[in-house]
Amino acid sequence: MTETSTITSDIVIVGGGIAGLAMAARLAHRTAFTITVLDSDRAPEMPDETLQLRTTSLNSAAMRLLEEAGVMAHLPSRFLTDFDRLEAGSRNAPDALSFSARDIDLARFGVFVENNRLRTALWQTLMPMAQVTLISESRLSSLQRHDDHVDGLLDDGRALNARLIIGADGARSQVRHLAGISSQQRDYAQEAMIINVRLTEAPGNTTWQIFTPSGPVALLPLHDRQASLIWYDRPGQVQKRMDMDDDALRTAILEAFPTRLGQIEAILERGRFPIRRLHAQRYAGKRVALIGDAAHVIHPMAGQGINLGLADVMALAEALEHESDPGAAQALSRYQRRQWPRNAAMLTGVEQLHHLFTLPFAPLRTLAERGLKGADRMAPVKRFMMSLATGQPLTNARGTEDHDTQP
After folding, report:
1. How far apart are CA 216 and CA 232, in angstroms?
2. Which among 197, 205, 160 is positioned nearest to 178, based on CA atoms?
3. Residue 253 lies inside a defined structural domain of this protein
4. Which cofactors are reported in the record for this sequence (predicted)?
5. What is the C-alpha to C-alpha distance for residues 54 and 59, in angstroms, rounded to an integer?
């Protein structure tokens, strides 16, 4: 990039995580707008062969977005793990709710991939694009919105001028704050412990989750007999396990996880992060839009965080791609009407599921387990839940898509 005192671009995306970079890639693929991405971190570099701590699931809709943008060319297939079956239940009924991709005529639900590899692949995709400018280690410090443009300042004193600002800068979004958009937030008083392991036998292509009174335990199958174990619990309990040596942690895992896990050959890495919920009051305002964690943070038990963010990317790009002015109010309003209700429904549903399976009263948890079994026997319910997991539109009895209506 040529150093100037003012950065001028049609669209400035604040945040160079997965959602922000995917937004730039989608817009570059579908429009002629000039795009600048500002990221507070250093430019990413592709990790070595070592398994990275944070892993995400990409549903089939997200995969199509990335493939169309050329991102998969920078992501070796050996680091992608297909999953074609999802199971959820309790210790007494571990597969009470079971989904197969074949039930909706898909070869797979999606893939698991390490976050850092995906982010680096996105960055590498954008680097040679003439209409995209990537600026690392820069932060937005101020923002002034006008009828036909946006002015701002970076922390290094440089100014920016754009027609649209997109906030993709995470749960503590500076863009959301500067735009005066409020949010509803909640701390679940719970943490997720991530434990990367190598198993004695390959975990297959099924991802599963077992609900317990203290929170779920889950397995994400990965390549080379590796897996990511997710263990939700109160922060104090998570800290105790973080302090254990490998042998003690292995014993604790085998006691808490179902026997289907099998034997653990090695514990590779461990980490923790808090569980919170956040939903912005709105996703769009005067010449500003929010996507990804800047707009919503969902309980990770559903594995939908990145997928919801990438659905935002697709919806906002579709709203903008036929506009001459990317900050046009009608385009941002279309995005708001489409995405806010959909994401609100998903956040509410996952929160209710969390409450249902962490009830302190055992008989009510038993009713919840029976509810899972009941849902498994109801084909329309299963198809609806799988459509959420895959990002695929539902089809009605005539084989045509069902579209939600927006006001």
Report:
1. 6
2. 160
3. no
4. FAD
5. 17
Which among 25, 24, 29 is positioned nearest to 13, based on CA atoms?
A: 24
- Token readout for 333 is 């309003």
Segment (H or E) for 21: helix 18-30
CATH code where residue 154 lies? 3.50.50.60
Distances (CA, A) of 224 to 115, 402, 404: 17, 40, 41
The DSSP call for residue 182 is -
Would the CA dihedral through 381, 382, 383, 387 be positive or negative?
A: positive
* Closest C-alpha among 114, 119, 118 to residue 39: 119
Specify the DSSP class assigned to residue 332: H
Q: Nearest Cα to 18, choosing from 272, 291, 335, 228?
A: 291
Q: Is residue 23 part of a domain?
A: yes
Q: Is the distance from CB of 239 to CB of 286 less than 8 angstroms?
A: no
pLDDT along the chain (407 residues), means of 10: 74 97 96 97 91 90 92 92 86 76 83 95 96 96 96 94 97 96 90 96 91 87 94 96 97 93 96 93 97 92 83 96 96 96 84 62 48 51 58 43 36
Q: Which domain holds residue 23?
A: 6-52+61-77+115-185+277-351
Joined together, the tokens standing for residue 166 give 């997109």
Asked whether residue 66 is domain-assigned, the answer is yes
pLDDT of residue 361: 42
Strand partners, 58: 111
Q: What total number of domains does the chain contain?
A: 1
Inter-residue contact 342 to 369 (CB < 8 Å): no
pLDDT digits (tens, 9 = 90+) for 235-256: 999 999 999 999 999 999 999 9
Under 8 Å between Cβ of 14 and 169:
yes
Phi, psi angle pair for 324, to nearest 5°: -80, -25
Domain membership of residue 70 (yes or no) is: yes
Name the token pair of 252: 């604790």
